[in-house]
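Board notes (copied after class):
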Amino acid sequence: MLPSSSLSVRPRRILPTLGAVLFSATLWAQEPAPEQPHPVELSEDESVEDIEASQAAPAAENTATETAGAESTSEAAATPPDEAEATPTRIAPNVDLKQVAPTPEPAPKSPPPEQSPEATGNSATTEPTEPGADAATPGPDSTTADEQTATDEAPQEAPPAEPLVILGTEVRPGTTTRLGWTPDTTMAGLNQPTPVLVINGARPGPNLCLTGAVHGDELNGIEIIRRVMYDIQADELSGRLIGVPIVNLQGFQRGSRYLPDRRDLNRNFPGDPNGSLASRVAYSLFNDVIRHCDMLVDIHTGSLKRSNLAQLRADMHISSVATFTEGFDKMAVVHSQGTPGMLRTAATSHGIVAVTMEAGESLRIQENQIKAGVNSINSLLEKQGMISRLFVWGKPEPVYYNSTWLRAKHGGILVSDVDLGDEVVAGEVLGIVTDPITNAQHPIRAEQDGRVIGMAVDQVVMAGFATYHMGTEARGPEQGPDED
C-alpha cells in the first residue's frame, strides 16, 4: 500500500499533461465541425410564414400595436432601483480603433440598465450660476425691456453628454474604446470575449446599436459595421454608437450559421438564463448590450446559397419603426412583423426601435452589398442628428407590403434569367430548371408584377425549393397592399 504522502503529490505531477490536453482540445475545437442534421429552424428570409401573414393592419390593430409598444416602454422605465446597473468597476481607455490592439478583457457582469433619459445621456441640466453673482434674485421691475429681450434671444446652452456604463465599464464622453462581452457558456479557462466597439460622442444624443453575424456565416454585416465604426470620431458624434461585429463568435470560427448546440441564435431572444445554450447566449447579449440601445440595426444576409437585395425587414405597423426606416438611403423596405425569438422582435417588444438589414449572400464578402449597407447607415446617422456631413440622398426606395417565395415544381439545375432588384411582370420567365439526364426544361414564371428582392444562386434544386422572393409594392401602410 502506498503511503499517504505519495498520494498527495500525484495530482501535481499530472497537471502539465492536463494542460497539454486542454491546449490540444482548444486547437481541435477551432477546426470546422462536420455538419449534422438539425431541427428545421428557418432563417428570416426563409421563414415565409411571417411574411405571407404580414398584411397591412387595420386602424384598430395599428392602434393596439402602438399601445402595446408604449406599455413596453413604460414598463422598462419602471425598473426598480435595485435592478439598475451597478457602479462601474473601471474606466474605459480612449483608443484609436484604427490601431491594432489586443483582444479586450471580459467585463464583469452587471444587471440590465434602467431605461431612462439619464441612461441615454439626454437628461436636462440646470445652467450654472455665473461666478461672483449676487445670491439675491432681482425682481421683475429691476429688469429693463432691452435686458429682457437680450435674455430671450440668448441661445440655450446644450446639455453636456453623459458617461455610458456598459459591461461594467464607464465610457466617458468623447471616448472611443473596445470592450469585451462574454456570455459565460463555455469552460472558464477557454472563454474568449466577444469584441464590442463603443463610441460615446462628445455631445448628447440617442444610442444606436449595430449587430452582425448573429448567424456565424454572415460576413457582409461584419465588414459593414467595421467600416461605419472606424470612420467616425467621438468628437463629431452626438450620442453613442455601439457595434458588435461578430455576435456568434463560435459559429463564425467554425464557418457555421448555428451555435455549437445546432440552434439558431436568432430564434431564442430575449433568452433565458436557465435555458438552452442558445437561449443563455441570447439572454446575456440582450441584457448586457441590447438593453442599452434606443435604436437597433441587426445585419444579416441570405441563408446558404440564397442572396438578398439590400433591404430592411421592419414591422411597418409600428409607427416609430416606420419613421425609422425613412432614414436609410437607397434601401428597399419589406414589411414583416417577424416571428417570436428574433432579435428585432424582442427589441421592439421592449420599446427599442429595431429593424433587420439584409445584404447579400452568406459566406461571402460582397463589395456592392457592403457599400449599400455603409451608405444607408451613414444616412441614418445623419437623419438622426448623430453626425453632420454633406450627404446626397438618392431616389427613395419602395416599401413592399406583400412578398412571397416562388418554389421549383421540378428538380434539376437552376439557371436564372433575372438579377436581384429586377422589376418583372406576371408571366415573365425568371429562370429555368433543367433535368440533366432527360434534358426536360421547366421554366419558373412570375405569378404577378413585382420585384426580385431575394433569390437562390444557380445550383441543383429539388421540387419545393425556394427560388425567387418576390416583393409587391404598396402605396402606403394606411392604404394597404396593392391588389390585382
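Comment from the instructor: The mean pLDDT is 78. The two ends are 91 Å apart (CA to CA).
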